[in-house]
Amino acid sequence: MNPLLKFSDMIGETNPYSDHYFIEKMSGGTERLTIAPSQKQIDLICSLLSEMEGPYGFLYIMVVSRSEYEPARYQLEQSLDLRQVSELLRDFQDFFEQDGRCTLFLGSHCDGAQIIYDRHNIIYAYGNLDAYRRVLRERGFLDEKVIVPAPHKHYYHKEFDEDEKRLFAMGNWFKSPLHDTDV
Q1: What span, in angstroms and rounded, lies between the C-alpha atoms of 97 and 104?
Q2: Which pLDDT value is given to residue 39?
Q3: Which residues contact 60 (CB under 8 A, 6 or more apart)?
Q4: How far apart are alpha carbons 165 and 70 in whole angstroms?
Q5: Model confidence at 12: pLDDT above 70
Q6: Sign for the pseudo-dihedral over CA of 36, 48, 26, 154
Q7: What are the φ and ψ backbone dihedral angles of 32, each rounded to 5 degrees?
Q8: pTM to 2 decimal places
């Protein structure tokens, strides 16, 4: 099966990113990396997670539902070590990389570092930015501002409905309402 689009610009209906990142200054002085990979987002996330200290929390933010589950924040009850979180991400790699119904939050319980993979196919990395930049440079990423195209389009594929059900069946989840910033 050819890869499906998760997100695209409205012009060519292709992934608009080409392996860029930049340091973004947030309010309060916090810095994060904003990363726009052209492909293999989950492989990159696993590499970035290896630069963080586990155990990890896993939060699945469902913005659009195609199943019996309602849009909400779903946090996996158990913490995961690096092997477990990497296996989970790789097991659902096609779903996460090719369907725009969710955002993922992966956070360290030890050092407060966080990786966010949003529905615009952008990765936000908080924590050891120097280590993350080293990983990105090794992969040929360029330091250049990332801009989310406007207008743009999100895709929600029926091909991944069973993957979402399988994800919810793999553990106990705490459910909480969406935040305004989730949509």
Answers
A1: 11
A2: 93
A3: 73, 74, 75, 76, 102, 104, 167, 173
A4: 12
A5: no
A6: positive
A7: -145, 160
A8: 0.95
